[in-house]
Each structure stands twice: as structure tokens, then as C-alpha cells.
Design a protein that fits this description.
Blueprint lengths: L10 H14 L12 H8 L3 H13 L3 E4 L3 E4 L4 H10 L4 H22 L2 H19 L3 H17 L4 H9 L1 H11 L6 H16 L2 H13 L9
Antiparallel strand pairs: 1-2
Organism: Streptomyces tremellae
Pfam families: FCD, GntR
Protein name: FadR/GntR family transcriptional regulator
Length: about 230
């Protein structure tokens, strides 16, 4: 979405709000290199020091990471996600997997009873995207597709609190998955996900919960290939 010039006097707060919206709306996904200070100042019609203050505030809140000589990057989609990322960066992969299993199994059980046809269509699309990334041995595409699929399963539970909590853990989950995967993940991971989606489609809560927990607790060795 295009940025617009602030209208009120509290320029710094307005710039912070606009930049935060770019992040939380998905316009600037995690990993995005944001425009430079001069570019943002020109787009917003404010002084560079106002932009600098806003960027520093968002970096302090954990949404942005200012990397000297490289630029400023989006590292979290909300303040809570930023806190989660800082708090659990480098956490033991097994611990992350156990938290995933707890949240995802509960969500999958609820999703089996509450999912809509729209949810199921979205899951099918994401399942195919995940398979395509696996066949292409594209690690980053696979991590993105796998994360999106699991978030879609959680979202299908139609519990806003559960979805928000899981989304805020997303950066930690993606980092753990990226560490586990090198090249292409093992083929059985694809089969597990098809069974997960099929259980949700059939409305089978317990099998869906078991599939979700089983996948979250599986830790493919780095370098595993089909």
C-alpha cells in the first residue's frame, strides 16, 4: 500500500504507526529490507531525523533490525513476536518442537470440527505449494510454505487468541525449522501433512491432533534428502 504524508503534529508517532502498519499488514514481510531513511523521508514528506526516530523505536520494540552497512530489516510481525524472537532465539529445538506440538495438536482438534470449505481450499493450496518447494529442494521456499500450512491449520480452529499466539511464535518456529532442514526434507514429511489435512477434512479430531503433534515432534536431520 502507498505511504501518505502525516496530517497531524505528532509526526514521529504517525510515522511509527505507518511503518508498523506496513509490517503488520504483510506489505513488508519478515526478512524484507525496508527503504532507506532518505527514501522513507521522501515518501512520507518528513525530515530524516523523524524517520530515524521512528525506525529506532520499531527496532527497540523488536520489529526491525538495524544492520550497519547492510540496511534495516523486518524481523517480526508484532511487538510480541519481536519479544518472542529475542527471548527464544537459539532455544533448544526440542523445546520449540514440544511447544509447537501442544499448540498445533489442540488447534488441529478444534479445526477438524470448525473448518470451513474455504479453510480446506486454502490448506490444499498450501499443501501443493509445500510439495513444490520440496521437489525444487528450495529450503527458504519450503520453510515459508511449511510455516504457512501450519498457521492455516491453526487458523482453521477459528480461535483468535490461539491463532495470534501461534503467529507470534512464528519466527521462532521458522528459525528452528530452517536449522533442521538442509536441501530437501524427507519425503515422509509430505505424507504426514496430507494425512493431517485429510483428517481435518473428514472431521476426525483425534487423528488430526495426533498428526499435528507427530509432525511437530519429528526432527529431520540436517541434510536429509528424499
Amino acid at each position: 500500500m502507498p505511504l501518505s504524508a502525516p496530517r497531524r503534529s505528532a509526526l514521529s508517532d504517525q510515522v511509527i504507526a505507518q511503518l508498523r502498519n506496513q509490517i503488520t499488514s504483510g506489505e513488508w514481510p519478515v526478512g524484507t529490507r525496508v527503504p532507506t531513511e532518505p527514501e522513507l523521508a521522501e515518501q512520507l514528506g518528513v525530515a530524516r531525523n523523524t524517520v530515524r526516530e521512528a525506525v529506532r523505536a520499531l527496532a527497540h520494540n523488536g520489529l526491525l533490525d538495524i544492520r550497519q552497512g547492510s540496511g534495516t530489516y523486518v524481523v517480526a510481525t508484532s511487538e510480541l513476536a519481536g519479544v518472542m524472537h529475542r527471548r527464544f532465539a537459539g532455544a533448544d529445538a526440542r523445546s520449540v518442537a514440544e511447544v509447537r506440538a501442544t499448540l498445533e495438536s489442540s488447534a488441529a482438534r478444534l479445526a477438524a470440527a470448525r473448518r470451513t470449505e474455504r479453510d480446506l481450499r486454502q490448506l490444499d493450496v498450501l499443501l501443493e505449494r509445500r510439495a513444490d518447494a520440496w521437489h525444487a529442494a528450495d529450503v527458504e521456499a519450503f520453510v515459508a510454505a511449511d510455516s504457512a500450512l501450519h498457521l492455516a491449520v491453526v487458523s482453521a480452529a477459528h480461535n483468535e487468541v490461539l491463532t495470534a499466539l501461534y503467529a507470534d511464535l512464528g519466527d521462532v518456529v521458522r528459525e528452528a525449522l530452517r536449522d533442521q532442514v538442509s536441501g530437501a526434507p524427507p519425503e515422509e514429511g509430505l505424507m504426514d501433512h496430507r494425512r493431517l489435512v485429510d483428517a481435518g477434512r473428514a472431521g476426525d479430531g483425534e487423528p488430526a491432533a495426533a498428526e499435528a503433534a507427530g509432525h511437530a515432534l519429528s526432527c529431520p536431520p540436517a541434510g536429509a534428502r528424499a
